[in-house]
Amino acid sequence: MRTGLLVALLLGVLIGALANAILAPALGAMSVDLGVTPDRLTLAFSVYAVVYAAVVPLLGRLGDVLGYKPVFAFSAGLFALGSLLAGAAGSLATLVAARAVQAAGAGGLFPVAQAVAGAMLTGHERSKALGMIMAAFALGSVLGPNLGGFLVEHLSWRWVFWVSVPLGVLALALVLPQRLPTPGKREAIDWLGGILVAGTLAALVMGIQGLEQIDQVGFFSGPIAGRFALALLGGGLLYLWERRQREPVLDMELALGRAFLPIWWVSILLGYALMGGLVFAPLYAQVTFLFTAFQSGLILNALALAMVAASGFAGATAQRLGARRLTLWGMALVALGLGAMTFLGSALAGLLAGLGLVGLGIGLAQPPLSHLALGLAPAGKEGQVSGLASLTRSLGVAAGITISGVLLARRSRELAELGGGFGAMDPTASLKDAPVFVQEMLKHTLGRGIQEGWEVAFVAALLGLVAAFLIRPDPR
Known about the structure:
The protein is an all-alpha fold and 476 residues long. It has two domains: 3-176 and 249-468, Up-down Bundle (Growth Hormone, Chain: A), CATH 1.20.1250.20; 190-248. The chain is built from 21 helices and no strands. The chain has helices at residues 3-21, 27-34, 42-66, 68-87, 92-106, 110-120, 123-154, 159-162, 164-175, 191-210, 214-217, 222-242, 252-256, 261-278, 281-288, 293-298, 301-321, 323-344, 348-376, 382-418, 436-468. The chain is globular.
């Protein structure tokens, strides 16, 4: 693969990873500036997941039909625009709208990068490229928390978005001169199928997001059960329609095939475990260990650096050691790491060890999962398969963020009843100078709520390990 093309693809993956990772250390500053509690800011994560889930299958299919270059170029430009708008947001509503634009662009970055590797490369070269792509994702996870904390302390939380603008423009400029795989013949685009896919997946992720209100409205309410029912109805219509199409947006043999289903389940649970353990970890460090925003971002280095190393190793050895075996090892390490965070995280050493193990596990499991899926993909369907891999991971991410947010919100209400509030503190400073009773109040409310989220993520990782045993042996 040509250097310019590889750099463009890796930049696209990098900024896609930054989109969520860089926000974690900025939550406190954003909550103060926008006048909302930290748990409400999960909307900025959740809307990203909703839109991403809605567009990624369509963009993956458009890559197969129209060619990967126009889809990637459009996505990079749209992502840069969304980042610019998010940084200028003056309210939670405008931030959420800008994040929707950003997510629509991200929907064509990671999937197209994987699809290009699947279409242009085979065997060891493919697994090596997928390892590099995942390492770029991990690098975004390394840079994100550190860069986010630095920008919050020295500039403004707005720069956590604006920093991605020049990178997106550079990715666009690098990819335009490149020659990427193009379809042999122009096929008709199943637009109705695309609408059904987008509507079904948006309703599903919005149902997951609606769980934030479960304490107020109950499960059997419009914002929750109604959205899941709409997703179920949409899914039924989608299945009936796509089974009749010669070139569907969502090929049911790829989405529901027996060989693919275990891969998708592991991908969902892996996404949940990652974000369920990651999203509020810096906030936990702030209220438990009295770290500043910048210091709290640094704790994620243990996870992200481990991801970089493990991703490179997995990409280089997947063909020799077996992608399925590496996936099993990875899920076991993720479960072990989340267990350490859950039961030993009250000590800094236990938290860092747990984050490191989670990073190793994610890095070992994610590239082999993509390798397994693309190895099963029929020729000309790499975009769809890559889109499904990204989609399933994003569904897990949405669930991880939302359920962790629900548990944190419960503790936030408890904190409010006790008369304290994180929003009253200066988010750019340490809580060391706060009264001891405030420190203890934050630790036993917000800190405990974050630990409860880790407990659920630990269970998700164990289920992912079980699902990994159902994956078929590597395709040859």
